[in-house]
Amino acid sequence: MEFVNVILPLPIKGVFTYHVPKVLENSLQIGQRVVVPFGGKKLYTGIILEIHKIKPELYKTKEIFTILENEAFVTINQLNFWKWISEYYLCTLGDVYRNAFPSALKLESETYIRKTGHEIIWEELDEREIFVMQNLEVKTSIDLKEIESFISKKHIVPTIKSLFEKNLVELDEQIIEKYKPKQMVYLDLNPDFKNSEIFKRALLEIDRAPKQREAFLVFIQWQQQRTSHIGKRELVDRFSPAVVKGLIDRNFLIEFQLQIDRIEDYDDNIEDFNELSEAQNQAFHEIRNQFSKYNTVLLQGVTSSGKTEIYFHLIDEQLKLGKNCLLLLPEISITTQLVTKIQKRFGNEVGVYHSKLNQNERVEVWKNTLNNKYKILIGARSIIFLPIQNIGLIIVDEEHDSSYKQSDTLPLYNARDCVQILAHQFKAKVLLGSATPSMESYYNCDQGKFGFVELNQRFGEIKLPEVDLVSLRTPTITPNISYELYEQIKICLENKKQVILFHNRRGFSPILECNQCGHSPTCPNCDVSLTYHKVSSTLRCHYCGNTRALPQTCPSCHSHSLETKGIGTQQIEEEIIHLFPEARVARMDVDTMKRKHAYEILFEKMHLHEIDILIGTQMVTKGLDFDSIQLVGVIRADSLLNFPNFRAEERTLQLLTQVSGRAGRREAGKVLIQTFDPENPLYLFIQENNYHLAKDTILQERKEFLYPPYYRLIEITFKHKKQDKAKKTATFVVEYLRNFIQEPFILGPEEGLIPRINNYYIYKVLLKHPANKSTKNLKFFIEQSLTKVESVQAYRSVKITIDVDPL
Ligand SMILES: Nc1ncnc2c1ncn2[C@@H]1O[C@H](COP(=O)(O)OP(=O)(O)OP(=O)(O)O)[C@@H](O)[C@H]1O
Ligand SMILES: [Zn+2]
Fold first, then answer.
1. Cα dihedral 768, 769, 770, 773 in deg (nearest 10)
2. So what's the ipTM on this one?
3. How far apart (Å, rounded) are the C-alpha atoms in residues 380 and 111?
4. pLDDT of 617-626, one tens digit each?
5. Full-model pTM
6. Pairing between strand 760-770 and 746-757?
7. Considering only CA atoms, which residue is closest to atom 23 of ligand 1?
């Protein structure tokens, strides 16, 4: 008999053995998708990891139901990569599989499906498919379990798969819901207006509606400037719904809809490469040089030095060698300018993969990658899980960015580090690029592991912006805007230039406080104050989402003197509007950027200079490349530094350097940093643009206090609704581990920074390990300690997560 070991999307260690039905014997492949029964009732889509003839002795195997296609869906390289991740990040293969695979490709009992609304041609469906579709006529969504009552288990997944392929059903998951493909409404000119007589008459007709006339002319101007369609929303935002409706009612503009979420083929012109400047050319050659000695090279290029241009030339070289390239970007940059830039150079050989794609799009990219359709793949961190082929070069742009680390779902991997394994598999090179490299990467250069190339000149020999520190200890014009900043904004606006104001909201969200008794409403489920949301007039918990109406009186002493404390971007916006009533102001933060195309619209507006002042959180610090930003203001630099994390200084340095880099990219620019602590050496380094000295200071401290990059960290988190259970389990683990690891390499258990989230009490244990030694033993002890926990009945319900290399 033939057996297969299958990976299932479960947080259980190990693989699961099934026997192969006679008809499938000798035809299976490693990496193929199979549907298998599990437990009493469930069924899952699994991946074949091994095929063998060894009958398990301890239990009776079940038979696999079916295979989903005749070829492997996961490559051997991928499976090896998954194994590495599960060993390094101490999670199960099932955790990796669950995360690595698009949901639509791993149907299981709990998967919900619903109709797409696509026309059903009943004659083309088989009996089972008809059953499912009829069921969906009466119910909006069903899960695979329900289908079991009318289709045999064996046939469920193939049936659904077939309906998927016919585009008749889609997954119904709450998370996916958000990104459901949307029809976007666009506007076009009435085709009759091509006739200039009709056009002239039309213009006369709206002479008496000046707003409509203006909107109409702006629309025509846009149409001439752009190759893409013009969204209705954009015109509405610029004018008003009524004005735009007027133009549509008059039949001047015609509405049409397009589904925008499908991966669009690029059909515009392919642009030539820019010639590299002398400095860029030198860096380019230096990188190639270093690649003959090192597999990984760190490129530190100051902001606006044109690193992208160098990437393009390196990529081009690989393509000419017949190799593919992988380009990793922080999540946010994906929706922005870079992707368009790349498509302009490389056309349709580019695949894009990121979290805002819907399920169908993900499947499409996966299949195209497997079929080696793309020469270049661009994506956020999850791109490393695609079935990539024939890779010659992997580029990680903004390598210091924390969004390369997955922090909410297992596995808690860092894509910047994982690409080393992929590169090894393909014998490919890795280029890490940043204006502000991470301490880890510097360390690797020092250790002789990475090569190092520096590019110290901005493109066009533009000078780096001048940085001024402004003390907040002296009186300000409005609560958060100093006289100096006010003056500079004024000058900038007079010069018809744009301003970016950066306000770090982390830890500074507005809260409600009673002036009488000092009470501040807290979340019933978490140990945090509720955040005040002005627009909806609510108090909200940012950890569990708990929301309540804004109280009129203090819940504790019933006085009426409730006041908001702390500042958010909204307050800054109000102050700016008050100071500059004429200016066109926009805000960029999680609240304003929720909608799928919010970024594109905002960037378009920045580009067209329809915004004078852009106020935003961290989002404005990354990658923005606009011509006319002359001034960058940092509202409160200190809020970054005061964050209780050993990386606070590094992050501050990176953020401030990055945000400063948005200024003066075409001609001289200026940066104003407002702070309560203008003598802080870190700010002085930033002012002098001395990243190297700043980095040396930080590294010195890290070494002294046994932190990365000199030591690797592993953090174990314990969560339980009963506080003492969480604490006791954590203590139990620490006591066990102390047999092998002594102070100061083991810390805790300590309460979490927020001791309770969503009614779960949190305890943490931190382990440190010299970076130049293998963590194999340490990881073994940790796993042992968890096995010990498993054996104690009372501790079993405690939720334990291990974070290797936490940020
Ligand atoms: N060789 C070149 N020819 C023409 N334009 C260039 C060239 N190199 C760079 N540029 C332009 O200079 C600007 C800055 O380049 P780019 O955005 O690549 O910088 P960067 O190093 O990635 O900066 P940051 O780290 O701040 O994102 C871009 O608008 C780019 O188009
Ligand atoms: Zn809460």
1. -170
2. 0.96
3. 26
4. 888 887 788 8
5. 0.81
6. antiparallel
7. 304
